Amino acid sequence: MKSTLITWKDKWNYKLQISNPENRGITRRLQKLIKNPTQDIYGVQDLKKTEKEIVLINLLLDEYNKVLKWLNCKSLNIPIANIHIISEYEYNRKIRIRNGNKNSAGNYSYGHCYLTRGDKKFLNISAHELAHITGLITIDSVITKTILHASLRIGISRRVGNYCWQYNGLNEALTEVIGQEIVSRALKTRRVPSIYLTDEINVTAYPAHVCILKHLIKRAISPSCSLESIKKALVRSYITGNDKYLKCIIPNERVAIAMKLMGTDSYAALATAHILGNRKLITRIEKI
Hints:
Layout: E1 4-10, H1 28-34, H2 51-70, E2 83-86, H3 88-99, E3 107-109, E4 112-116, H4 122-134, E5 137-143, E6 147-154, E7 157-160, E8 164-166, H5 168-188, H6 207-220, H7 227-240, H8 253-261, H9 266-276, H10 279-286
Parallel strand pairs: 2-4
Antiparallel strand pairs: 1-5, 3-4, 5-6, 6-7, 7-8
Helix pairs in contact: 2-4, 2-5, 4-5, 5-6, 6-9, 8-9, 9-10
């Protein structure tokens, strides 16, 4: 069978969109095959979720759905079975080593989220990884006898060529800001189990990148552009993949190039701060 290239824009409501007009005649067998292509690609051994873990996960998903409703977007339809809680040993062996990222604290892939039990930052990490699932995922899928997926868009980041990604650092910063907002909303309900209210609750992932994003947001606020409208535009861009919403914080080509090239390590964020040319921003990032 010849390879067939499709694009799958997924909201985790399992609806497929075929972008190539010539592929509209895909057979029923193939439609059935690609209807629900999400799977646990790591083959992890789940721990049985505790009652408190279930309460927290459901609370976070509920808060995400409230944000989606605020944006007039469809609610998430993520089975709790897709949220995997595993041991530190299992996570290290099957995810950290495989991905070559020794600092990874949580992971997500095609509608699945992977968390380790006992992490002091469990609340924050859960919110961050669930935010990734909330964002737009666009996947190129090559169908032969099986299906091979390759991500093209994740949130606002996009793959260019085989290995290069644009807006990667900005995407992680926005993911963290969205996650922080959800944590804040969850805490206000007073339903977060006390076991997760640790000293690490205010620790930020990608702090230098978040610092840059907040700098851009603050600079974009004006009488005609409120903080709430900017936040709404950014989250809408993250969920829909529509780049026009990014224009509210990217005023010119120099900033656009800087955001495209900024990677996810702290050195990339510092280099970006120098490109933006703001001395106070550079100093704040140097102190992180």
